[in-house]
Each structure stands twice: as structure tokens, then as C-alpha cells.
Design brief:
It contains 20 helices and 21 strands. It has 711 residues and is α/β, with parallel strands linked by helices. Strands 3-2-1-4-5-6 form a six-stranded parallel beta sheet, with helices on both faces. Strands 10-7-13-12 form a four-stranded mixed beta sheet. It has a four-stranded mixed beta sheet with strand order 8-11-14-9, sandwiched between helices. β4, α10 and β5 form a beta-alpha-beta unit. The N and C termini lie far apart (63 Å). Bound molecules: iron/sulfur cluster. Iron/sulfur cluster binds next to α5 and β16.
Length: 711
């Protein structure tokens, strides 16, 4: 037997022994009926559930899983069998990690890692993964001989937008080396024990269950999904023992190549297990092995620029200066002009730049972008304008919140000391805009204005009238007022049989793709994920049945779906990929529906959490009675119009209710003549069970009580 296989089996057998002992001890201590569960997931112990279909809920379920684990270790001299032994180590690691949660809701409280990654986090990663904003996932494991090596590699991944999940002492090495850690920075410490690597594995496994419509127990389907659709790979740092080697074999079985920084000599497996001892080549080799292509946009600015910095918070004490609508006029405006009115790539700072402004103070700021292009349309102005938020945030040391005339921008002292100035903001706008919108924009000129009077003048004379014009356009933008809807198939990389139909009154269920966005996407990429759908021959306006919707959905899903109604939750409802902002489900007692949003971790009156509700839909499958959707769709007059509309809503989490209250109350007044409709909708502070909910609805005389049965 090769030295490599010998190590794999040694590791797998050692983990199997540890697992069996730990399970027996836990049962002896707590009894077989003691509950065992990972936090905030609807997928039990996800690896075991996905691979075997077994729903582990109590300690008494685990001995059978240990038997499965042991059966995977054949000790035969065969690479395929050895990789199965690696999967056995994954099963063991999952059980050992799950045992940490028995009798301890937060076993990672004292660890710098976060442990298990909850379902809502995975759902929130869906859109950045499909858009390529996160081009891949690196699992970094171990302790580097030289801390600088791992710091450099992780910073490189961060600058490329790669999501890095870390296990072991490399976490502290990176923290001490100045790597910004946390989900917001796309560098997530999982834990120190090697078994914590399972928390990376279950992210991939649950992607298959959430987005891929995998049948639990379909192990070949799972391995195919992770190999083909989850762009992950593993880097180990420092010496590796047999347990790490067997865990690595599990990663390879899932299709994730492993790059180690020690010389494995002839034990290397080309394409799957390779040695890279020169850390300058680690990133390049890892990306090559997983075929991850990074689009590099060269930006002549003195700070790093990457989507990984989007969530960076800059506290008051760390800021050099701030620009905020709370204390001074601000605005962001994209305006279409004729080509002869502007000079391409002209960037002007009007007023004082950061080095002339008193540190720690708040100032006025306008970002005024003039664009020209034969194919440019005023409808694309707000689409480009909303990009400013992301582009500014991508600069390390810049925090941007808000939009239009309600913004706050902070520049950190660190970024200022590195030389960041407002001219660089103009460069970022120019380069990114010409990169992403080159199909419609031929010329672009940028003014960054800090002169208060000039900002005020721009705000009053151009920005506010433009915002009002656009609001009016949006107000009048209904499904009836346009000639075309659009498909969006971006999520097919994870959910192959899913297709969103985006209309003016029904945005994509991720909440990130409006009809204007889809229209612009089509113009920018005519063969891309958004294709126009004709509205001709509408068969049912209330349910939203259009022949071309059915045809385009059938084409887009390669025949997986043949009929979709746009406004019904019961009859051929739109599918969900899994990254929906909200899920709506029928509440049979009241004859209404409840809605839960991704951020809500509590219980709903259906006796299910968001995660449990969400697990019933997704994967591009139609599930009558459940519907994933965006927040904005709740106040749409098309929301479930086939079943009576949003009058059916009886319960929402308070935060969601408050967020949509203004729009929903306005729409309810217009559509049904009801005042303050949201006062009639319960939330978790009022009811989390059906009886209390019904009593509340009766007290409020909720209109749902007078509606026809929904089923
Ligand atoms: S609109 Fe639909 S398919 Fe497109 S990114 Fe959003 S959820 Fe995915």
C-alpha cells in the first residue's frame, strides 16, 4: 500500500475510534433520547442527511451513523476506496462537532472561530456566488511555518473576492498579520480543532440541498453536485498528520482539490492532491486546479479594491473625514448627455480634497457622473447609480451607505495615510463603469464635488428633479405598462432548473434584480441570463398566465418546467432557487399566509422556522403553497393576486413588517380601502402559535376572515 493510502486509512480509523467512543460516552451521560442538532439548520447533521437520508435528531440515532462511517473504511489498496475512507472521516468529524452542541448552545463562545455556519448565511451567499462576485471558496487549514506565508495567501484570496474558510492556528496567524476577519470580509474563521473543517464541508453539502434539489441519500448525486457546482478547494499549511490527510481525502472525494505546502513527492495525485512549496504560487495553482478565472480590473488607486471589503465598518475614531447627508448636502447622480458635451475619462474634484479637509469632521459631497452612448437609455441611469454603493465600498478603508441624496461616506485614517484621495473615487467610478457598462456607455466624465454650495446647487437643480422623474416612472411602471418581461437564469449555476421571471411588479426573488436591472442586463449581454419575454396572448391576467412565459421558462430550464403563473402561490407557482429574501407559506387555520424573512431566526405560527420553511421549497422545484420572493414584492398589487392578494397576509416578523409598512399600507389603502393594514398583521411579539394568532386576527377583524378558502 502506498504511503499516502496508509496515512488516509490510519487517519480514518483513528477518527472512527474517536467518534465511537465519544458517541458511547455521550449516550452513557445523557441517554439515547437526548436531542442532538446543529444550530439554525433544517438539514439535521447535513453531511449524514445528504449522503444517507438519515435525519439525526437524538443521540440514539448516532450509533447507526458510526456503523456507516466504519463501513466506508475498507482498508483496501484502491484510491476510490481510500477516498471513501476520507468521507468516513467527514462523517466522524460531523458527529464529533455535533456532540459539542449537546448541552451547549454556543460551544464556540471561547473559540475565535464561529463553528457551524447557519442556513441563512448560505442562502445569503447564493447571489454573490452566481454573479461571480465570490468566484470561489478556499478552505485554509493548519499552521504555517512562517505566518507571513498564510497571511499573504489569504490577503490575495481576499483581494480576489474568494471566500476563505479557516481552520486551525492559521486563524490567529492571519489576525495578527492584519487580515480583516469575518463574513463581511469574506474570511471566516471556523474553529481550531481539525474536525471544524466539517463546517466548510456542510456549506457545500447544503448548497446542494438548498439550491440543487438533491434528494437526501443520493450520495452519487451529492458528489457530482459538489464537484461540478461548488468552486471550492483546500490549502493546508504546515505539517500534516494522518487525520488531516484523511480529511483531505474526503475533500477530494467531494471534488475539491487539495494543495499542501510540504513536498509529497510521488504521493501527489495530479489535479487532486498537489504540493506547492513556494507560497508565491499557492493561489495561482489552487485557482488553476479548480478552473477559477478571476477577472482582474486594474485600478490606479493606493488601496486594495475588492468585493471582500464591501461590509467594512469604519468607526468614528478611525475615520479621517466623513461626508454625510445628516450634516451637509450630498447626492449621487448619473446623467445621460450627448457625446459632444463631455470629455471621456475627465475626472475633476470641485472643492477641497481630503488632505485639505479638517480631520474628523463632516462635509458635503456629490458624485456627479455624466455618460454618453448610442445605446444609453435614461432607464439605465438608476441601475448605474446604484452601483456606486458597491464600487465605493470595494475600496479598502471606505465605507458607503445609502443612495441618492441620503448617503454617508467615511474614509479611514489608514486609507488616507496610504494616499487615498477623492480623485481616486473618480477613477474607480470611471474604470468600473466602463468595464461593466461598456455596451451602453461610450464616454464618461466624473465630478466629485465637496464645495457645499455647488453640491447644494447640483442637488436642487439636477439631482432632485431627476429622482422625482424616476420615481414617477417607477410609480407608473406596472406589468401592464411594459411590452416585455425578462427571465433571469443567473442562479442556474447552483439551481439548474430554476428560472426567475422578472416583471416591473415582481422583482427577482433574491431582491437584487428589478425589471430595470434585467432590462439593462439584456442590453449589456443579449445572449446572457436575462432574455425578453413577450406578453402577447395573455391567458389570465389575474393569475398571470402568459404563453411566452411558459415557453421561455421551458427553454431556460431545459424542459424541467413547462408552466408558471406569475401571481399564484397555489397553481404552478414560480420556482425558487434558494436565495430568496422571504418565504411565504399558507397558514391553514386563518385561511391566510405568513411570511418569514431570512434574517428572522425565531418561530413562526406554522411551527417552523424560516430555515425549516425554506427547506420545503428551493432547488428550482414548484411547491404549491410555498413561495420564495423578494421583500419588495410584499406590497406589490400582484402579490398572490390569484388568491386574493396581500389581504391574505396574517403574520410577519416585526422587523419585516416595519420595513414594508409604508409601502404596504399605501397599497392596501389603494387596493382595498383599508387604513393601516399592517396593524392587523401579527408578528412574533403578538403570536407564534395558531390559537393566539387567530384570536388576534378576530380582535382586529382582519379581512382574511371574510375571504373564500384558499385551498
Ligand atoms: S433574479 Fe432570480 S435567478 Fe436572478 S439572481 Fe435573483 S434569484 Fe437568481
Amino acid at each position: 500500500m502506498s504511503a499516502l493510502m496508509d496515512l488516509i486509512y490510519k487517519g480514518s480509523n483513528a477518527v472512527a475510534g474517536l467518534t465511537e467512543n465519544a458517541v458511547n460516552e455521550a449516550i452513557a451521560k445523557y441517554g439515547e433520547d437526548k436531542k442532538v442538532a446543529m444550530p439554525d439548520t433544517a438539514y439535521f447533521l447535513p453531511t449524514i442527511y445528504a449522503a444517507t437520508g438519515v435525519k439525526v435528531t437524538k443521540l440514539g440515532d448516532l450509533p447507526a451513523c458510526v456503523n456507516v462511517q466504519k463501513s466506508l473504511i475498507t482498508n483496501k489498496e484502491d484510491l476510490g476506496e481510500a477516498l471513501n475512507a476520507g468521507l468516513a472521516t467527514a462523517v466522524g468529524a460531523e458527529i464529533l462537532e455535533a456532540l459539542k452542541y449537546v448541552d451547549n448552545a454556543d460551544p464556540y463562545a471561547e473559540d475565535s472561530g464561529i463553528g457551524f455556519v447557519p442556513d441563512p448565511v448560505i442562502r445569503s451567499l447564493g447571489v454573490p456566488l452566481v454573479t461571480g462576485d465570490i468566484p470561489g471558496v478556499a478552505v485554509v487549514l493548519g499552521k504555517a511555518d512562517n505566518a507571513e506565508d498564510v497571511v499573504k495567501v489569504v490577503k490575495d484570496y481576499q483581494s480576489k473576492g474568494i471566500l476563505t474558510l479557516m481552520v486551525g492556528d492559521c486563524i490567529e496567524q492571519c489576525a495578527e498579520g492584519g487580515v480583516k476577519l469575518g463574513l463581511d470580509f469574506r474570511v471566516v474563521p471556523l474553529g481550531h480543532d481539525v474536525t471544524a473543517v466539517i463546517h466548510a464541508v456542510t456549506v457545500a453539502v447544503r448548497a446542494g440541498l438548498i439550491f440543487g434539489n438533491l434528494t437526501p441519500g443520493d450520495l452519487p448525486g451529492l458528489l457530482k453536485y459538489t464537484k461540478e457546482r461548488v468552486p471550492a478547494f483546500v490549502n493546508t499549511f504546515g505539517p500534516i498528520d494522518e487525520v488531516v490527510v484523511s480529511a483531505g481525502a474526503g475533500a477530494i472525494a467531494l471534488g475539491f482539490p487539495v494543495v499542501v505546502d510540504i513536498d509529497l513527492g510521488e504521493n501527489q495525485v495530479p489535479g487532486a492532491l498537489e504540493s506547492v512549496t513556494d507560497h508565491d504560487n499557492t493561489v495561482k495553482k489552487s485557482l488553476e486546479l479548480r478552473n477559477i478565472k478571476i477577472k482582474v480590473t486594474e485600478l490606479p488607486i493606493p488601496v486594495a479594491f475588492a468585493s471582500a471589503f464591501e461590509g467594512e465598518i469604519i468607526r468614528k475614531g478611525d475615520m479621517q473625514v466623513e461626508f454625510s447627508s445628516h450634516k451637509a448636502p450630498t447626492c449621487e447622480l448619473v446623467e445621460t448627455v450627448s457625446a459632444d458635451e463631455i470629455e471621456d475619462h475627465k475626472i475633476t474634484v470641485v472643492g477641497k480634497d481630503v488632505d485639505e479637509l479638517e480631520p474628523g469632521k463632516t462635509y458635503a459631497l456629490a458624485t456627479y457622473i455624466k455618460v454618453a452612448g448610442a445605446k444609453m437609455q435614461p432607464d439605465f441611469e438608476p441601475v448605474i447609480e446604484r452601483k456606486i454603493h458597491a464600487w465605493y465600498n470595494y475600496m479598502e478603508g471606505v465605507m458607503h451607505t445609502g443612495q441618492r441624496n441620503q448617503i454617508r461616506i467615511r474614509i479611514s485614517k489608514e486609507a488616507y495615510e496610504k494616499g487615498l484621495r477623492l480623485k481616486d473615487f473618480g477613477e474607480v467610478i470611471y474604470v468600473m463603469l466602463m468595464d461593466e457598462f461598456d455596451m451602453v456607455v461610450d464616454k464618461c466624465e466624473v465630478e466629485i464635488i465637496t464645495d457645499t454650495e455647488k453640491v447644494q446647487e447640483l442637488l436642487e437643480k439636477k439631482a432632485m428633479p431627476a429622482y422625482e422623474r424616476r420615481d414617477e416612472r417607477l410609480e407608473n411602471l406596472t406589468d401592464e405598462s411594459v411590452d416585455e418581461f425578462y427571465t433571469c437564469t443567473l442562479c442556474q449555476s447552483f439551481a439548474p432548473s430554476h428560472c426567475c421571471v422578472v416583471t416591473p411588479e415582481r422583482l427577482g426573488l433574491c431582491g437584487a434584480v428589478s425589471w430595470l436591472d434585467a432590462k439593462a442586463t439584456y442590453q449589456l449581454n443579449p445572449t446572457g441570463p436575462s432574455q425578453p419575454i413577450s406578453k402577447e396572448g395573455c391567458e389570465d391576467e389575474v393569475k398571470g398566465v402568459y404563453p411566452d412565459v411558459n415557453k421561455k421558462v421551458e427553454e431556460a430550464t431545459q424542459g424541467a418546467l413547462t408552466r408558471v403563473t406569475l401571481y399564484s402561490i397555489m397553481e404552478d407557482p414560480m420556482t425558487s432557487c434558494g436565495c430568496f429574501e422571504c418565504i411565504c407559506g399558507i397558514e391553514p387555520f386563518s385561511n391566510g399566509v405568513i411570511i418569514a424573512n431570512r434574517e428572522y431566526a425565531g418561530m413562526t405560527p406554522l411551527g417552523m422556522t424560516f430555515g425549516e420553511l425554506a427547506s420545503m421549497t428551493g432547488g428550482g422545484v414548484q411547491t404549491p403553497g410555498f413561495m420564495g420572493h423578494g421583500r419588495h414584492f410584499i406590497s406589490s398589487k400582484k402579490f398572490m393576486s390569484a388568491e386574493g392578494g396581500f389581504e391574505r397576509i396574517v403574520w410577519m416578523p416585526k422587523e419585516l413588517k416595519d420595513d414594508v409598512a409604508e409601502r404596504l399600507n399605501k397599497a392596501a389603502k389603494e387596493k382595498y380601502g383599508i387604513d393601516n393594514f399592517t396593524d392587523m398583521i401579527a408578528d412574533e411579539t403578538i403570536a407564534t402559535d395558531e390559537e393566539t394568532l387567530m384570536a388576534f386576527l378576530q380582535e382586529k377583524n382582519h379581512p382574511v376572515l371574510g375571504l373564500d378558502p384558499i385551498m
